[in-house]
Amino acid sequence: MSADSETAHQIRGIVTRSAVRSTNDKGGSQTASVETHRHVERTDVEIVQPFGFASRGPAGSEMVVLAVGGDQGDLVGLPTSAPGNRLGGLEEGEAAMHNLKGDRVHAKMDGSIESTSRKRVKSKVKDATVEVLEDRIIAKLGAAANAPRVVIRPDYVKLRFGDQWLVVKADGIFCSVAPVVGPDPEPGV
């Protein structure tokens, strides 16, 4: 092989579009096994990801692989791409996260955030949680067993605070003690 041919091969190897065979998300950084050229497989290629966001592309996705300083022994990959599974239709300036099954969080241009899940959406602030499931919504304020909570189901709404509870159903209101009529503690809500 001539020097010119060898130099051309080295330059071509600095940046490659590679097929991802598998990924590994254990350890200090995520790595991938990729095919950089036909019948040329490379393992433990570090995937460089932006701070604050993590994803793990499926086998069969694509990755741009860079040879740092032209050194084929020091490869890094840009975040993976799976064009056949891309979430499209975003407006300019919008952002979304999604998985292969269609679950997603979409920050829209109108200022709203839309979450879509096949199973559950859970929001947590310290010990306060709100869970939205297919058949109920559960809100808790605190982790203790007697913490205030609200459960909304198709056939009733239940409020609980310590040992006291109140249930509203289509056929009436039921509670642990006789209700006392008094002032609204938070009229603006």
Into how many domains do the coordinates divide? 3
Order of helices and strands: HEEEEEEEEEEEEEEE
- What proportion of the residues is helical, as a percent range? under 10%
Structural class: mainly beta
Q: Estimate the global geometry from the Cα principal axes.
A: elongated
The CATH architecture of the largest domain is Beta Barrel
Summarize the topology:
Elements: H1 3-12, E1 15-24, E2 31-37, E3 40-47, E4 62-67, E5 75-77, E6 95-98, E7 104-107, E8 113-116, E9 120-125, E10 128-133, E11 137-141, E12 149-153, E13 156-161, E14 164-169, E15 172-175
Parallel strand pairs: 3-5
Antiparallel strand pairs: 1-2, 1-4, 2-3, 4-5, 6-7, 7-8, 9-10, 10-11, 11-12, 12-13, 13-14, 14-15
Structural overview:
By secondary structure, the protein is mainly beta. It has one helix spanning 3-12; strands at 15-24, 31-37, 40-47, 62-67, 75-77, 95-98, 104-107, 113-116, 120-125, 128-133, 137-141, 149-153, 156-161, 164-169, 172-175. It has 3 domains: 3-83, OB fold (Dihydrolipoamide Acetyltransferase, E2P), CATH 2.40.50; 87-117, no CATH class; 119-189, Glycosyl hydrolase fold. The chain has a 7-stranded antiparallel sheet, with no helix packed on it. The protein is elongated.
